[in-house]
């Protein structure tokens, strides 16, 4: 994570996400998947092919791509279908766009009710016998049962969570890095899924996105760094208020 | 010289000239700002490389002078609410923290009997000028104990003139031992974990001995705590000198 400053001098914390060897693996049509839209399977980081059996390599062989560590699905409209085997780059996103980021949260292991659910526990002194971090009562008398889903101690973390509506501040096309506002679930160097935001406020924020994606062998030549309009670029002199 | 035989003395070749290569000497002594050294961790070094590019970019446009903890600085920042739209603060640097773009330094001064500490970010675009009024080092890396010292040690004249200094001189170390206010202090500075050399402790002997009870002499031999930055520093120095010459 890194700080970024706007032209008015405000600081925003920013997370750096690297797009590492992403390829489209397979196209699944609407009828085949049984959903409302067609799906595209996309694979992430390259990994050695020797730790999995040959049967697991079929998808990658069809697309002509080395084995990937993670395969995710994206729901896609019919006009945005991409041929399997095309690489995806960070330039697919543009600064000023809003994005949802999904990842597995940091695993905390088996945790008690105070850390896992934020219960208040009991006082440290004034006669409490062996009861300082316990849940206390778990149900009422009339219920005569404990409801399903009652908050109790258990394994915390290591589940998929999404942060919605994160602004993209900057894109580095040379190293394929996306600068995303705020924090993102997961530990450092973990795999993360970045998607256009589904929040209703950001439905029309993409003005001219590269559609269906940014093709590296196309005619467009992008500069090494793409900045949002409000970012203070370090090539400018210091901020002064008129 | 008088020779033993009476013959003319044997030809002595002139002594070889001693060439002091000023350039290499300059490079050895050049200061590397502590925020360039990446911390130990599992982050990708690519992240530090990209951050360093941004830091160098900022340094090309705005010069950040060399300074240490214990030097007196004057910082002018942009402020939308001030009448001149800029604010100037003079103070002694008590701490330099943070790595990369978020590096900060804290300046302390006593203004009209009120101690004031301001934490500035080195790479913030709101900073318009940093002047070093007095460049010197102190016996410690962290001068937070000045909060519990007598106010005379933290007062600096707001209209102080910069102290002239020759280039290529060694940075002077101020071996000042500071006198403290009576206890209680904000932190127990006499304990060995702070390792403070710049305080003149006027505590009784038995208290100083009791503080040594919290010493951890094994820490100095702990090999897992060693972080040898010499090679990393050399690489970063080379990178910096190449980029700044462009």
From TrEMBL, chain A:
Annotated PROSITE patterns: RIBOSOMAL_L3
GO biological process: translation
A Pfam cross-reference name: Ribosomal_L3
Gene Ontology MF term list: structural constituent of ribosome
Domain of life: Eukaryota
Compartments, record wording: Mitochondrion
Gene Ontology CC terms: mitochondrial large ribosomal subunit
Keyword terms, alphabetized: Mitochondrion, Ribonucleoprotein, Ribosomal protein, Transit peptide
Primary localisation category: mitochondrion
Extent of the signal sequence: none
PANTHER family: 50S RIBOSOMAL PROTEIN L3, LARGE RIBOSOMAL SUBUNIT PROTEIN UL3M
Family the entry assigns: Belongs to the universal ribosomal protein uL3 family.
Protein's recorded name: Large ribosomal subunit protein uL3m
Gene this protein is translated from: Mrpl3
TrEMBL record, chain B:
Protein encoded by which gene: Mrpl19
Keyword Cytoplasm tagged: no
Keyword entries, A-Z: Mitochondrion, Ribonucleoprotein, Ribosomal protein, Transit peptide
Keyword match RNA-binding: no
A single GO cellular-component term on record: mitochondrial large ribosomal subunit
UniProt xrefs under Gene3D superfamilies: 2.30.30.790
Protein family: Belongs to the bacterial ribosomal protein bL19 family.
Protein name per the record: Large ribosomal subunit protein bL19m
Native organism: Leucopsar rothschildi (Bali myna)
